[in-house]
Hints:
Elements: H1 3-19, H2 53-95
Amino acid sequence: MSAEEERVCHAEGLRRAAGAGGGVGASDDDDDEGYGREGAVNAGAARPKKEGAEEKRQRKAAARANKAERRQEKKGSKEAFREERAVQLATRLKTAQLPCTSLSRWGN
Length: 108
């Protein structure tokens, strides 16, 4: 098995393992994990000099799949941050204090 095939198989295995977790926002236990992409493939890796047409198609298909996966991940995180911001703004409006007026003769 060539290095490229091993990388693709490894990436597919990671993708399947991540998919078994239930997708984006499956549970609140995911908050303990670090940031970053777990299944990132080194896109800067050198490809074989005598790469065949079928291998090239597979490599490009894998790259397109990774891009599509990243777009979905980004869309999910943007939506989550948008929802959280709305919740925080609503909370801020509910708990905001009105400006006070001093009732003292000397005023502050």
